[in-house]
Design goal:
single chain; 205 residues; alpha/beta; Rossmann fold; five-stranded parallel beta sheet; 58% helix; binds adenosine monophosphate
């Protein structure tokens, strides 16, 4: 693909799925395929916590308890991040939006620039497998927010607050559902294939 074509290609994507479904891994790969930044609000919060920034100090207790950071603060952080030059032609948001208020905010933010979402990738994963993955990750990474109690709390929160958003995206015709189980490469190929079917062909794929 030529440079000109690359510049005109836009991909404004979300990736959703229960915590532990492999979103982060797939997000980096899909974002790289489209040449857009993968933006994870969880990663932004964790980076601020580990750097001891004022934002990190504000959100540490919330992340440790598995609760959600306020919509106002989260929206502000996403607006700032999407205003950066690397997000001009698209982005892949991971972990955001998580509430109806965040969906509304993102819609308005994009609309103000005459933009809209292109697709929402939903990773499907069996709950037992998801819990197994999270336990493994907690052991491997020593993530302080991944105790068993917190894992359950985050799964509950996901079901209660985020799953209804999926119905909204489905209604808008944005939802692309992909089986998240299997080898990482296979899942990536499934996602890219499903997006290509919607006309979002990644350069070089
Ligand atoms: P994640 O890595 O996406 O599971 O996010 C880790 C934690 O960061 C979550 O448990 C929340 O405390 C916080 N967080 C991440 N994204 C959001 C969001 N969109 N809204 C509110 N809190 C968030």
């Amino acid at each position: 693909m030529t440079r000109t074509a690359l510049r005109t290609l836009t991909a404004r994507l979300l990736i959703v799925g229960p915590p532990g479904a492999g979103k982060g891994t797939q997000a980096s790969r899909i974002a790289a395929a489209y040449g857009v930044p993968a933006i994870s609000t969880g990663d932004i919060f964790r980076a601020n916590i580990s750097q001891g920034t004022p934002l990190g100090v504000r959100v540490q207790a919330i992340l440790d308890s598995g609760g959600l950071v306020s919509d106002a603060l989260t929206n502000e952080i996403v607006a700032d991040r999407l205003a950066e030059p690397d997000a001009e032609h698209g982005f892949l948001l991971d972990g955001y939006p998580r509430t109806e208020e965040q969906v509304r905010f993102l819609d308005e933010l994009l609309d103000a620039d005459g933009q809209r979402l292109d697709a929402v990738v939903r990773l499907l994963a069996d709950e037992d497998e998801v819990v197994r993955r999270l336990r493994l990750r907690a052991i491997e990474l020593g993530r302080s927010d991944d105790t068993e109690e917190v894992i359950r709390h985050r799964q509950d929160l996901y079901a209660r607050e985020t799953a209804p958003l999926i119905a909204m995206f489905a209604e808008r015709g944005l939802l692309v559902e992909v089986d998240g189980l299997g080898a990482v490469d296979e899942v990536t190929a499934r996602i890219l294939g499903a997006l290509a079917e919607r006309g979002l062909v990644a350069p070089g794929v």
